[in-house]
Write a structure and sequence with these properties.
Length: 469
């Protein structure tokens, strides 16, 4: 039978097979061109997952790749790195500041006031004081603004700012806030607050980037005071409810030059909502040397050419001389970072990992098991906290402490817009270490159990799909 002959109103099987093969070949070629031309560096597991999806299910995989496949929209820089600062003395490790300078991250600055908040109510009170003292402008970026007690209280504080003539801008992630009623936010808009949704799911001006979400948390007042950390603006992050206590989390306030650098970062995110990406790398600000604590912003995300935080953590694993301490609610690292931590354990570095026994995302708990088993076999000290731990922090020896919004998983390290802050002062590192030791004392030891075949398949599937979505 001739291949072009119709059979019951359909083309013959050979022709359909030819068309299908052409679609698969075209899809794979498109994947190759877009990833190479756009210089979309990917972990091997991610690349294999996309290739298999396009090859086996092209009618589903190709549209999904076009919608979710973008990982970076800032290409690697081709200009010399900004020289690292040398006026901080021994307060900051050169391996960290030099690496971040080479990736064009804003340099460290001395800040007169740095205050941490482990208690949600104290954090909320500090935030309200920051808003009450604002005179000219308040800028707020968050993944979630809930219509509950905490979200409504924040909305009221922002309304008070607007009524006394303070310019207020509110940047919310369109997907992160999707499950919360939009009426609360629309009321803020009617009260004179300028609101923008980051990457709307429909009519997205940043075409094809629906999967790249803004997970940064920051509030800047008058370019002088900066509130940040891991907390979203919902009740579980501050006061909890009658049935459930507040989650364990961290946030902080910094007064000084760091706030101006955070302001510049917010401006980039604010204008990117309308597709304006003209100022991509021009926010590294040199600050005068003043008395205070050395602190440095460490932004990471698709808007930067490098995987800033991932590269810093990878370097820290090889530069650590005594210990590494990591705290995270979700733990699904890529192979390179996991291997570096295992090697650190084997060369005698004390690696301690604190995470919740059960997080609020069950799939994340399933996906973390292979990495936990491998770390445990390498000699890591893994502790499971009895409640919901949402704090994100990393301590390297007594030289560097990171705190902010990024989880130790593929989504935060490679897809999300994230913001960590590096603290180089001895007092700040000691405070975070003391906080961590108190919570480690309440945690129990992780015991690795060999998985069966079904469990291994489930864990592999969740890790592969979870990274993409």
């Amino acid at each position: 039978m001739h291949p072009l002959q119709f059979l019951n109103g359909n083309f013959s099987l050979p022709l359909l097979a030819l068309e299908h093969s052409a679609l698969v070949l075209g899809g794979l070629l498109l994947y190759l061109l877009l990833t190479r031309i756009g210089q979309q560096r990917r972990p091997p597991a991610s690349a294999v997952a996309w290739v298999l999806l396009i090859a086996l299910f092209p009618y589903f995989g190709l549209p999904l790749f076009l919608l979710f496949g973008t990982r970076k929209f800032a290409r690697p820089l081709r200009k010399p790195p900004v020289p690292s600062r040398t006026d901080l003395g021994d307060a900051a490790p050169r391996w960290a500041t030099g690496l971040l300078a080479a990736m064009h991250v804003p340099p460290p600055s001395q800040n007169p006031v740095v205050l941490f908040h482990e208690n949600g109510e104290a954090s909320q009170q500090a935030l309200f004081e920051l808003l009450e003292n604002a005179q000219r402008q308040v800028d707020l970026c968050s993944f979630i603004l809930a219509a509950d007690q905490a979200g409504l209280a924040l909305g009221h504080a922002l309304q008070q700012c607007a009524r006394r003539g303070v310019k207020v801008r509110l940047l919310l992630d369109a997907l992160g806030d999707l499950r919360h009623p939009r009426g609360h936010v629309e009321k803020l808009r009617r009260d004179g607050i300028d609101v923008r949704w980051f990457m709307p799911l429909l009519h997205n001006p940043m075409k094809g980037r629906t999967n790249l979400r803004n997970h940064r948390k920051m509030v800047i007042a008058d370019s002088q005071r900066f509130w940040s950390g891991g907390r979203n603006f919902a009740a579980e992050y501050f006061s909890g409810s009658r049935r459930r206590p507040a989650w364990v989390d961290l946030s902080f306030v910094v007064e000084g030059p760091l706030a101006r650098q955070a302001q510049a970062l917010f401006e980039r995110d604010w204008h990117a909502v309308n597709g304006d990406e003209r100022v991509r790398h021009g926010y590294s600000l040199a600050e005068p040397v003043l008395p205070g604590t050395p602190v440095q912003l460490v932004p990471s995300g698709p808007d930067l050419p490098d995987d800033t935080l991932h590269d810093l953590l990878l370097t820290a694993a090889y530069q650590a001389r005594r210990r590494l301490l990591a705290i995270t609610p979700y733990f699904v690292p890529d192979d390179a970072l996991l291997s570096a931590w295992c090697l650190a354990c084997r060369r005698g570095i004390e690696f301690t990992l604190l995470l919740p026994r059960r997080s609020n995302h069950r799939l994340a708990d399933v996906a973390r098991e292979p990495a936990l088993r491998e770390l445990a076999a390498a000699g890591a000290r893994i502790r499971l906290y009895p409640g919901m731990l949402h704090a994100k922090a990393v301590i390297v020896d007594d030289q560097l402490a990171l705190c902010g919004s990024a989880n130790l998983d593929g989504r935060s390290l490679f897809l999300n817009f994230e913001l960590m802050t590096a603290f180089y002062g001895a007092a700040e590192i000691a405070w975070l270490d003391h906080w961590a030791q108190r919570h480690l004392a309440k945690a129990s030891a992780y015991r690795a159990r060999p998985p069966g075949l079904g469990r291994s398949l489930l864990e592999g599937l969740v890790r592969t799909v979870g990274y993409q979505l």
